[in-house]
Write a structure and sequence with these properties.
single chain; 139 residues; alpha/beta; Rossmann fold; six-stranded mixed beta sheet
Length: 139
């Protein structure tokens, strides 16, 4: 199962050794899933860690060794994502999940993605960390 991690999931996993975001990395280390993200999401996570918890940057770097960074999405994928009811700034990140053939897009961003939780677009299901964790462990 391939999980695309939004920037907030990478940030949270680096920030706290406990919790479901870090748990997804443990599942990947155990071979239960594959983790991917975009360069944009990775850079956003790095910026936020440097700003809010610079002492956790080493953790983020270590965790990213388990994550494949997919190419930035082709404009056709961005157009498909822009047709969905979401904030335009989020379209390229979701489009990268489409192009990367993720099974699940994992985000903790309830404000921008909450209305899409549990829904599937372009074969990618949008889930919270808790639901993604359950999906992988039940797979």
């Amino acid at each position: 199962m391939k999980l695309f991690l939004d920037a907030n999931i990478i940030f949270t996993a680096a920030y706290s050794e406990d919790g479901l975001s870090r748990g997804l990395f443990r599942l990947a280390a155990a071979g239960r899933c594959v983790l991917i993200t975009s360069a944009f999401a990775h850079e956003e996570a790095v910026r936020n860690i440097e700003k809010k918890a610079p002492d956790r940057l080493t953790d983020l770097i270590m965790l990213m060794e388990q994550v494949d960074i997919v190419p930035e999405p082709h404009p056709q994928w961005v157009l498909r994502a822009e047709r969905l009811p979401l904030v335009s700034k989020d379209a390229p990140v979701l489009a990268a999940a489409f192009q990367g053939k993720a099974d699940i897009f994992v985000t903790g961003d309830r404000r921008d993605f909450g209305h899409l939780f549990g829904k599937t677009f372009e074969s990618v299901k949008i889930l919270t960390p808790a639901d993604a964790f359950d999906a992988v462990t039940l797979f």
